[in-house]
Amino acid sequence: MSETFRPFWLQQALAAEQRDPANQGNAPTPLQGDLDVDICIVGGGYTGLWTAIMVRQARPDWRIAVIERDLCGAGASGRNGGCMLTWSTKFLSLAQLFGAAEAARLVQASEQAVTQIADFCRAHAIDAEVRTAGAVYAASNDAQVGAIDSVLQALQKQGINRWRSVDAAECESLAGSARMRHGVFTDAAGSVQPARLVRGLRRVALAMGVAVHEKTSMLELRQSARPQVQTGAGCITATQIVLATNADMARQFPQFARDVVLVSSDMVITEPRPDLVAAIGLDRGQAVCDLRTFVHYWRSTPDGRLMLGKGGNEIAFGNRMLRRFDQPSRYRSPLQQALQTFFPALAEVPIAASWTGASDRSATGFPFFGRLSKHANIFYGFGYSGNGVVQSYLGGSILSSLLLGADNAWTRSVLTRGPLASFPPEPVRWCGAMLVRDAIRRKERCEDAGTAPHAIDRYLSRFARMASKADEAEKVDAGKQGV
Questions:
Q1: Gap between the Cα atoms of 79 and 424, Å rounded
Q2: Which helix (H) or strand (E) holds 335?
Q3: CA angle, corner 401, sides to 30 and 193, nearest 5?
Q4: Distances in whole angstroms, Cα of residue 107 to Cα of each of 43, 111, 155, 341
Q5: Any coiled-coil ranges, and where (predicted)?
Q6: Number of other CB atoms surrounding residue 92 within 10 Å
Q7: N or C: which end of the chain has fewer CB within 10 A?
């Protein structure tokens, strides 16, 4: 990852830190020398910091160290869209993988996490611009109408549906765009300044006595009885280790090479125009998504900017961390065009910045956790699949429970049994992914234009949801047996 490029959110968060006297003395401190600790966490993003904080709250006597190769927030935690979305719209997939009862628990836990994150920020004076104003999912063309109906019916059957249909006028008001229709709204969602959240978690962890060493890379992991992390200027010996490097995991540990694929998500953000943002109804901070496969998503900021993003652009061969994952977006022009299409009133507002980032898409679409090579004291968690702002709080709950040796719903969950599905090996994976991606793009362009997609593109697009089903079924059965 480049050390010179800083995405918009992180630039903003670091500038705020420099102005805040409370952050004096919290400069990056690379590890110098050796450490002996109870817990070493590799990765200073959401997952690593939530885990450190939750363990520290339960065991204030434990020595905990977090290492981060760059700055906390330089990875996905500081460059995502800041949409606080839950697993509710994933209920059918969750039920297929884990059963209806566990799926319902995970949905409700993700909805509760929205409030828990907001409450934590208030309790610890983290100015992360959290706004729990809900979320809107709606169709942006006729082909998307009804795409979410079956999952809402299933939620209703389980008695856990927090979504409601909105009429055309309310849909336009909530989504901020006349192109959005047949929408549904939930109060269990919102938005956050993602880098301010992760930098705030870093500050709280430091205040709690967690040692946070930025600019400190793991060069080697020694899987001894008391495992060790070798860095450039020291060695950390720990009773337990957590690996929370997310998109880097498949590169660092080849056994995960087929379990995730790195896909970019790209974003643009406007200059502030609070008057225009308020006029179209987006000033409350609600998150909005359309219902295509490669969704458009957007939300406002408290100072009146509008952020719009889209996933499914760059796909890395062999899970290489491409240089363009850490640069201004190559898709700035189509993103700007999409923003102008959805929001004609903002067509003349300048774009302040664009950026991109790698999303670790798992074959199931959900994160997975476990013990590295069945080592009793080395844990990992990643694979959030572009839906991790809220879910990483759950990841912290899972990993902290494992570290504490708890016997609870988190440690008993199938989520802790490692990857449940795999992609094909390279080069089949990359070639297939590119073929399907391009078919989806053509199909969705036709749908936006109101024309019929080619039959071949409709057929290929199905593979975005059909991938790895045979392997998935085999691994889920094994996971349920505890293998």
A1: 29
A2: helix 332-342
A3: 55
A4: 26, 6, 9, 33
A5: none
A6: 15
A7: C
Give the CA distances from residue 168 to residues 147, 177, 182, 183, in Å, rounded to whole numbers and listed in that order: 17, 11, 7, 8
Cα distances (angstroms) measured from residue 223 to each of 74, 216, 230, 237, 378: 27, 19, 11, 11, 8
Residue 353 three-state SS: strand
Rounded mean pLDDT of 180-198?
A: 98
Tell me: pLDDT of 364 over 70. Answer: yes
Banded pLDDT at 4 (limits 50, 70, 90): confident
Structure tokens at 352: 């302040």
Residue 415: name the closest of 401, 430, 435 by CA: 401
> What residues pair up with 357 in beta bridges, in sequence order?
265
Neighbouring CB atoms inside 10 A of 347's CB total 11
Closest to 369 (Cα-Cα) out of 383, 357, 389, 349: 383
With contact defined as beta carbons under 8 Å apart, do 112 and 390 qualify?
no
Angle, CA of 67, 191 and 398, to the nearest 5°: 45
Model-level pTM greater than 0.90?
yes
